[in-house]
Amino acid sequence: MTPTPTITALMNPLGNSEVHILKYNGMSNKNDVQDQFFLTAADPKDGNLEDRLNEVINAKYQAGFLKPYNYVNGYARLQRYMEQQ
């Protein structure tokens, strides 16, 4: 079954323009998490810099935008480089 797009209109806090968000039925959880990341990154809660940075990083990880570094590929590339020298 192909997801069908729906458009949701949200008012800008200033009330002078609209923001359209494209969502697909059946895929709203992923989009909701990604939307939450964008909202968190744009306006983190008050607090010290470290707490705000941790909040943004956690939201980015939950949205799937932050992936751990694959050290296996890095070591394989290093090994190939060392063998060429």
From TrEMBL:
InterPro entries, per the entry: Zinc_cluster_trans_reg
Name of the featured protein: Transcription factor
Annotated source species: Helicostylum pulchrum
